[in-house]
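Re-run with default settings, no changes from the original entry. Doing this only to confirm the output is reproducible before filing.
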Amino acid sequence: MKELLTEIAKSLVDNPDEVQVTVVEKEHLTVLQLSVAKADMGKVIGKKGKIAQAIRTVIKAASVPGDKKVVVDIL
């Protein structure tokens, strides 16, 4: 999941070197924390959060059913 989120984010931003994804494992949850350069934040979130929601949908669809729930946080 981390690699998929990293590739998606790098394809959207102007500064791909500043894309960082941190994985936080919890009991029944995996949190992927995405951080990008401040100048690229709008490109990752999109108008009315549509791109952020699309990213979350793709990650959720790519997660294995029955595993932990996967959540994407944009920092």
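The chain has three helices and three strands. The chain has one domain: 2-74.
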